[in-house]
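dumping this here so i dont lose it again. seq + smiles for calcium ion
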Amino acid sequence: MRTHLATLALSTADRPAASSATPPLARPRLPVLWLLASGLCASAFACSASASDGFSGDGKNDTVLEGGRLVFRSDLAMQVDQCDTDCADVDGDGLVDAWEDQLLERMRPVVRFDEAEKILSDPTGKVGMVARVFPVSLDPVEIHVLIELGYSNDYGTCFGITEHHGDSERVGMRLVALPGRPHDLVVSGLYTAAHEHTPNEHSKLHEGDDLLRIETRRELGGPRWVVFSSRNKHATYFTLSDCESSFIPCVQEDCSPDRVADPAKFDVVPPFVNAGEPTAHRVDDLAVVGFPGDDAWIDQRFCGGLARNNLCAEPTVEKLTSDPFIKL
Ligand SMILES: [Ca+2]
Ligand SMILES: [Ca+2]
């Protein structure tokens, strides 16, 4: 198990390649999971941030819980028209790309696996995130973040008969400005997709007091959101009880490690890429997060970097453009 976690973690080492496939970022990003893989820390979450990762834990580029609500604090300018240096906006959405990347680095969730999750022992197993950060409004500020949780395989239900290449799940975040604090955004909505767009869908939008049920764990000086990935099917749940109380025919949804010596080994912060916007891409080829042959923006089933067939998952572009926070 330890070896394969390292394999997953090492996929983070692809991140420099991701950077080379995209416009240069304003600052280097330390692959957090590389620390885990390299054995420099027993747990990525116990590591101190280095000076090179851009996250000092001193409140300048950080997260904090305020009244139970997750807040992102940055010392970078968010909007291009309020930015003096490192103001690239390749995807043309009015948000400074370096700020977008910083938000993803710090706010993308921990994925917590069940102790029997097959992807952790599959030599070809990969987990990666494909993200989009965009403004719905800049006055007042409302930012939406959509993150595809890409898995190389769905290991199936009903004795494996529905196993297929590629598994395309996702989460979403809605953030709004805090009064008088232009650099700080508070989470006002979270979305967890579970068997999205299927007859067994258990996707949920979390707002208001429901947000207080958020699970976090401390990392780099601040809390990081934890989501629960169901065993082998990878449906995303907000809490352990949400997962294990869901009913799906022929499936017993299990989440979170039970009766293991070190539960932290089942928490993964996958590598990510910021794909940009539908009309101005920052990346197309998802090889940069471990999925060669998959594309962020064309209408193509997601096959997790494995052989293509019609059983592969929903296209990544669907996960990046269908907005769960927009009420029709
Ligand atoms: Ca931008
Ligand atoms: Ca963007």
